[in-house]
Amino acid sequence: MLTEPIDPPGIEWLRVSPKYVTVRLVEWALGNVIMIGLLSLPLVFVQLGWWRWPPVWLAIAVPAAMLVLALWRLVLIPRQVRAIGYAERDDDLLIRRGIFFQRTMVVPYGRMQYVDVAVGPVERSLGLCTLKLHTASPGTNAYLPGLPAAEGARLREQLSARGEARLAGL
């Protein structure tokens, strides 16, 4: 993989499971079907003669624009999943994500208060989980989605042990 200018040198990034694309597609489908359905209600009401406003062109344009935006997001999902990576170093965990707006986050082990593993119904059916790292800073939004369940459990135990060791000053 090519490294980006914001990546620290010499890092071997580990990727999340490709199955995470399925999780993101299910989330995409549920959210966009509901949103486009709701945005299409004015068109239905205008066509049934229940409403005179908005004009038909506006009642068509709004859900159509949302559909185009939703399809664009659909195209980006596989690339967004491939852009998620993590790397364990001696003193910290690196997490990267993003295509257009890239972000590389460094979470020192000594700042971790606890490590949480969460699974939703779609993730559970695919054998995946999301690792959440809680630090003293409420602004830290460190999470790593799409990990195989065994890797998530291993990381939880390893990161917790490293965090306790760094916190104790060992």
Description:
This protein has 170 residues and is an alpha+beta fold. It folds into two domains: 20-81; 85-167, PH-domain like (Roll), CATH 2.30.29. The chain is 47% helix and 24% strand. It is built from four helices and seven strands; from the N terminus they run βααββββαββα. The strands form two sheets. The chain has a four-stranded antiparallel sheet with strand order 1-2-3-4. Strands 5-6-7 form a three-stranded antiparallel sheet, sandwiched between helices. Helix 1 (20-47) packs antiparallel against helix 2 (56-82). The longest helix is centred in the N-terminal third of the chain and has 28 residues, at 20-47. The radius of gyration is 21 Å and the shape is elongated. The chain crosses the membrane at residues 25-50, 56-76. Pfam families: bPH_2 (PF03703). Keywords: Membrane, Transmembrane, Transmembrane helix.
Topology:
Blueprint: E1 14-15, H1 20-47, H2 56-82, E2 85-88, E3 92-97, E4 103-108, E5 112-118, H3 121-126, E6 128-135, E7 142-148, H4 149-167
Antiparallel strand pairs: 1-2, 2-3, 3-4, 5-6, 6-7
Short key terms for the protein model shown above:
2 domains, PH-domain like, 4-stranded antiparallel beta sheet, alpha+beta, elongated, 3-stranded antiparallel beta sheet, 4 helices, 170 residues, single chain
Percent helix among the residues? 40-55%
Radius of gyration: 21 Å
Estimate nothing, just give the exact number of structural domains.
2
Structure summary, number of beta strands? 7
How much of the sequence lies in strands comes to: 15-25%
N- to C-terminal separation?
35 Å
The biggest beta sheet reads: 4 strands, antiparallel
CATH fold-type name of the largest domain: PH-domain like
Q: What would CATH call the architecture of the largest domain?
A: Roll
Order of helices and strands: EHHEEEEHEEH
Overall form: elongated
- Overall structural class, as computed from helix and strand content, comes to alpha+beta
> Please, how many helices?
4
Average pLDDT number: 90
Task: Output the CATH class name of the largest domain.
Answer: Mainly Beta
Unreliable residue runs: none
What strand order characterises the main sheet? Answer: 1-2-3-4
Protein name: PH domain-containing protein
Organism: Paenarthrobacter ureafaciens
Keywords: Membrane, Transmembrane, Transmembrane helix
InterPro entries: YdbS-like_PH
